[in-house]
Amino acid sequence: MAEPQRARPKPTPETQHFWDGTKAGELRLQRCDACAHVYFPPRPFCPSCASRKVSIFKASGKGMLYSYVINHRPPAPGFTPPYAIAVVELDEGPRMMSNIIDCPQTPEALELDMKLEVAFENLDDKITLPVFRPAKG
Amino acid sequence: MRRNQVAVVGAAETTELGVIPNMSQIQLHADAALNAIADAGLKLSDIDGFATAVETPQQVCHYLGIKPTWVDGTSVGGCSFMLHVRHAAAAIEAGLCKTVLITHAESGKSMIGKQPRYTPPDSLNGQFESPFGVFGPPSMFPIPVLRFMKTYGITHEQLAMVAVVQREWAAKNPRASMKDPITVSDVLNSRMIAYPFRLLQCCLVTDGGGALILTSADRARDFPRKPVYILGTGESVETPMVSQMETFNSSRAFKVAGPLAFKEAGITHKDVDHLMIYDAFAHLPLFGLGDLGFMPYEETGKFIADGNTRPGGKLPLNTNGGGLSYMHSGMYGMYALQESVRQMRGIAPAQVPNAKISVCHGVGGMFAASGTIIFTNER
Q: How many CA atoms lie within 13 A of B366 on its CB side?
């Protein structure tokens, strides 16, 4: 029997650029051309001022650990507990859910406000997930 | 909305609560509805307005044999029933219907006739949360907790005391699922579910249901039960993605719904005799106390740990034992409303003496939605 698989995102026309970005090793956000608001998740208008004039740009990939849980049970398919489910606050402002790699999944190692940087994890030839690791230096 | 124009004249839960392996979810709706109709001294044919969540109004109306002229299928999670009360009150005042039945039921434990939850992979949740290992409410709802604790200096022991105090209330309630006393140590040594929360800080998973019947306050005097009036109401939604909340230091939906209800009721916090804050997990009463303006967030953990919300305390909170100890079928808001109504009728198992105003605050999803109803037994 095949191992249960991690949930795979299925892009929509409005989010395709984000998933194209992660596949290319870029974390892409959107910025409103009218009011400069930077936002996530993707959509073709500004959720702050409703302008349809928005631009896609490559984010710095830097952020900090805003909050998390360490999930013990029940684990999601494809995950081995305990594992952290984190919310990362990007330097550009938006927050996103992710996982923290290259770091023990413990309260002692996962310090709130710790600096993080993006990394990319290939799920298959179509989908690459943005994950984060403790920033170097 | 005008104060005290609409009243609850019928209220009941399912005949059994807890594990009900011999009843499907739709039958649990019917069981609760028939109990509430009997409580109000009505016939099914008297019902001309109907509201429910998860199941559609047409499913439950057909099953019960109701022919409504007004329906509401608002389904925003466990506080849907607070929103139904608000909407029903407005509909009755507007003359769209006279007698509204609101039902909730969930075969949360036995899973009979219940559709499993499904997050489509092309939804925003499916794209931007599911791939990172969220799997059910215990892995999502506590995600804001560590930030909230750090911001306000809340301790693990204080969050454990939420469960301890609610078990004290549950011990007074024959229908509560869990009645044995627990200590902070018991909570902090119970099985880890999703750090920082352990088993005793997570809600129960049970079967059950409840139903309410509302009509105009003028008609309410002719019913067998003491009327419980709708004094104030509020509602809001924020986001279905817990990661996208504006902040983890508060809930925007709570901060909209709660103060709206207080303003409409024309009361201050000192007027509140009895309080229900939907406790799917142990942090929710802290968010609720802060977001509804009872006290600064920094004081919420100490307030509960010091015993102010326990039996005999100055602010009786979650007096049925709450979702942590009474029951939690998945959408607990109906049971919080039932307890507020019992307290206002003066018939609760752990009755708060002379309680005249009850605030009932609900959450839907993971801070996705909120509804607040303020009841009174005086007009």
A: 21
